[in-house]
Request: fold
Amino acid sequence: MDFGLNEQQEMMQTLARDFLTGEYTDKVLKAMVKDEKGYTPELWKKMAEMNLTGLSIPEQYGGIGDFLDLIVVLEEMGRVCFLGPYFATLVLGASVIAGAGNEEQKKKYLTDIAEGKIKITLAIAESKVKYDIDEIESNAVSQGGFYVLNGGKLFVPDAQSADYIICAARVNDSKTKPEGITLFIVEANTPGIYIKPLPTVAGDKQCEVTFENVKTSAKDILGEENGGWPYVERALQRANVARCAEMVGMAEQALKLTLDYAKERTAFGHPIGAFQSLQHRCADMLVDIEGSKFATYQAAWKINQGLDAAMEASIAKAFVSNACQQVMASAHQVHGAIGFTEDHILHYYTKRTRAYEFSFGGVDYQLGRLASF
Amino acid sequence: MDFAFSPEEEAFRAQVAAFLEKEVPREYRDKRLTFFDMSAQSDWIQVHRAMAEKLGEKGWLSMHWPEEYGGHGVSPFYRLILREELSRYHSPGYDSIGCGIVAPALLLKGSEEQKKQHLPGIASGKTIWCETLSEPNHGSDLAAIEVFAKEEADCFVVNGQKIWTTNGHFADWNALIVRTDREASPNYRGLTFFLVDMKTPGITVNPVINMAGHHEFNEVFFEDIRIPKENIVGGLNKGFYVVMSLLDYERTTDTVYAIAATYLKDLEEYARENNLLNPFMENQFARFKAECEVARLLHYRCTWIQSQGMVPNHESAMSKMFSFELHQRISDFGMEVAGPYSQLTEESALAPMFGRIPSCYLRSFAYSLEQGTSEIDRDVIAQRGLGLPRLR
Reply:
């Protein structure tokens, strides 16, 4: 048992924290939420120069570090409420390609991701947003060596800035086969792909992606035809644990803002943080955060060891989502009316926590899975 | 980061499990008794002592101690594994006070003579301990305790009353904290920690029955009891420091998350076998499962801190509070699972799970009180963990 970070993880943590505190100020965050693309190429370039875009990608494709290093960095991104295609590209895109892709595909995509040249996302959910194999109705019909893809995807993270989209679909209506899911990787600007950002509460970039007679070929299949679902399952575990790491970072920052405020704001002649009613609220915030953190780390560690983490990922996502929402509610209570204003930064964190609960399976979904273990 | 036990630790767990499979009385397992309510069994004291001695013979009660005191110097995770298996097998035999609090306090602050005199009895399971801290007028505000020890030439003479003394009715030795300086300011600088033989003339123990009907704790009266000076631990008027480090241990000695998880599993089995599960209940079971896992991790973190040679402080308050409050909520939920049948006590043939459900439920009211109240835990977390200012 070891509950500490190793040297490399500590280094990544410091590096990411210093970089993000400097670059990703509240002002930048507010601008990015309003921005159509939700990121700037300049920042992405800097991230690539620091190798952040290579995290968890195998070394032979220009990457560094492992999934735990990535988790540590995502937690730091949570602290600044980072917005942008980092999660989509590294946690979804790169990991699906690393798992399912052939040598040629890995060389092509992973190298470019690591160098910061391309951004990739993954489209799974459809109108039911259930993240299970049965809901997928998008379909590709094979025609003379090509596939013609049709379907509608929802809540696709950062499709608006992606260069490629990985789409989970059936081939020739392989509905009868439960395992019949195929992963296609297509250029986002292929004719017939329509990307529409969804107006959401948190202003994070989630899109509706429609495929209308999109022509693709066998070369664009990641893994085997009809063999894509295990990679989706793997991606779901990673995505959920990654979202947990981000939520933990957000909750840590919300607690920091709360403590700063509670020590400085006075009432009845004392800093409000000296009152037990507030102290106990803050104590509960810390318990929620620490519990969330270790649940996240445990699931991430299992994934990093190459073990099945389905149960641990669901435990983490179910617990962390609720716990971090509690943290946000308490942060608002301690902040009083000022935290309720649009100008204050706190609500950015509150809204994003809510959005990330739903990302790749909300609490209900996770509890349903847990009941089966 | 590493969330796995070592192969040696896994082997130890298997060894303990195989032993308990043979040794735990069938009735205790069939009734699925939990650590917190098994003392209501009429034969509990004998069974508890007998199991303690068997665990002692195996050397398992002291294996994480330094070798010079009869241990094997292994990590405290071995103690944790032992406690997890004891919980899983519904087994008595672990003296939380002797093994969990007094031994670490002695190893940390005891004199060489004290270690030599007392550690072997704890290691062998032959000496059972109690602690007398709380008084009728002082609980959470421990620094204000009043029972006084008057210094004489060769000893201290104690008069007064202590209360909530778990196992006081059969313990062999007692860890006592009393006032030795009434003028000390702040008041906690006037407290001293003593080791007291329960056979000392002048000690009277009366039962205090709790609302579950169990006899767990007692009130203890001291009438001119004479304690030799060499029984002071940690120095005259320095008892508060011993108690503070002792509390950090106390909060991590019981693997409450494991007790709670075992009870949750038993409840779920009962609900499944009796076709009581519905979607709402399944949802709640899943939620509790996730929380038991979080409780486990918070506890492991404390044990990990101990394995690094440090003493967890607000971390142990956090872990203890979370586990106990979770167990309390699960015990409450148990009453919902069984519905009207949950009222039936052990005497009823219709009682589900041998009357475990109301017994656990009633016992659980103390979970947010014992070993420091949840309010004190939150004070500790807020003030020592988060650095929030004290109003006092």
Summary: Residues 121-226 of chain A form a domain with the Butyryl-CoA Dehydrogenase, subunit A; domain 2 fold (CATH 2.40.110.10). Chain A is about 50% helix and 15% strand. Chain A has a mean pLDDT of 96.
